[in-house]
Structures are given as structure tokens and as C-alpha cells.
Design a protein that fits this description.
3 helices; 6 strands; Nuclear Transport Factor 2, Chain: A; 40% strand; six-stranded mixed β-sheet; DUF4440 domain-containing protein; alpha+beta; 154 residues; single chain
């Protein structure tokens, strides 16, 4: 009789732990999809395809910067300067139908751990890979925001 109770307890524990694992996986996938959606709206379309500075401001944290190596120093390009440049470019006869202004993307990886995420995204223009970007995100009370970028230009 005791063996039956132990077996029932083990089966229940296995069931609960499987349910918790599946729940975490579903939650993680939902977070990944929210992050991808944010990157598409604010980054791929905001900064490249549609030149939508307002979409950029919604998806990027105000302290965001692009970091790149300059000799042995780090160059920092803040979001305010970048978004202003995007708005000016759009105002200067931007043609969304021009193939040079059409950017394709591929999410190479999306990693989420709690309230932190890292996304590797590849950007292509006219069939050629131009950038590999690493975007860092944090989850705030208001949702996910892009907080930093490092990249490689091919």
C-alpha cells in the first residue's frame, strides 16, 4: 500500500514539474515574440525601411547608444542623434520604393533570461548582408526596450 502512495506522489510531482516546464517554455516564447515584434517595429522598420523616428523612440530606451570600437576607444552614438538623423533623411525626398531603401532581416538568435534579452539580427540590402547586430534589451514596467547595440558591418 505504501509503495502505491509513493508511486502516486512521484507521478504527481513529475506531472507538476512537466507543467511548470511547459508553462515556462510558453512564457519564454511569448517574450521572444514580443521582443521580435518590438525590433521589427522600432528597429527594422523604424530605423531602416520606414524611417519612423517616433517608432524608434518608443522601442529604444532614452539612454540607448550604439557602441563601436574606434582605435582603442569606444565610440558612442546616442538614440536622440540617430532618431534625428532618421527624421531628416525621411524629410529629404526619401523614396520607400527605391530598392536601396528596402532592408531584409533574419533573426539569428533570441535569448531571454528573466528581464534581460540579447538578439542577434542580420540585415540585408539588395541581397547582400550589410550588418550583423547584437541588440541588448531590458524589460521595464512599461515593457521591453532596446538599451544597447554593437555590430559588425560586412
Amino acid at each position: 500500500m505504501k509503495k502505491g502512495h509513493y508511486l502516486l506522489v512521484i507521478i504527481c510531482l513529475l506531472g507538476f514539474s512537466s507543467f511548470a516546464f511547459i508553462h515556462d517554455e510558453v512564457k519564454n516564447k511569448a517574450e521572444e515574440e514580443a521582443i521580435k515584434d518590438l525590433i521589427l517595429k522600432s528597429y527594422v522598420h523604424g530605423a531602416f525601411n520606414e524611417l519612423d523616428a517616433e517608432a524608434m523612440k518608443k522601442g529604444f530606451h532614452e539612454d540607448f547608444a550604439i557602441y563601436s570600437a574606434k582605435g582603442e576607444s569606444i565610440s558612442k552614438y546616442p538614440i536622440a542623434v540617430w532618431a534625428d538623423g532618421v527624421a531628416k533623411r525621411k524629410a529629404n525626398n526619401y523614396d520607400a520604393k527605391d530598392p536601396k531603401n528596402k532592408w531584409e532581416h533574419k533573426f539569428a538568435s533570441v535569448g531571454v533570461t528573466g528581464g534581460a534579452a540579447q538578439v542577434k539580427i542580420e540585415l540585408f540590402n539588395q541581397g547582400k548582408q550589410v550588418y550583423t547586430d547584437y541588440l541588448s534589451l531590458l524589460k521595464f514596467e512599461s515593457g521591453w526596450r532596446i538599451v544597447a547595440k554593437v555590430y559588425n558591418q560586412h
